[in-house]
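Researcher: I'd like a structural prediction for the single chain below. Treat it as a standalone chain; there are no partners to consider.
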Amino acid sequence: MTRSSEIHQIHHPALAEGRWQTLSLMEQLGNVGSEVDRALRAHQNGRVERFEHALDRALELFDLTANDPRWSGHRRREVLRAREQFCRVFFDDGVEAGLADYLSKYFLQFAVAARTR
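Model: Treating it as a single chain, here is the predicted structure.
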């Protein structure tokens, strides 16, 4: 995992510069879900470096989504709750069995909905 003394690297510079705000909430969460799945798979397969990079990218996209001024109130709370649950998979010893699978299915719905729009 990245150490707090390291400089935070922006993994999605074009998105961080404003392109992210051109996407719908469904598109944003579908993209978050892609990184979530990458992190989950890498973690399950013991691919430490891949996991760390996917984790960083997923958290960056969660943060970009939560900071999008269009999403406030319940939408922002939902994004932050999903981020919290994602982090629990890796950092909470008492995490419920099946949470990783639940998150994959949760985010897949957004990706499918964004494609069918």
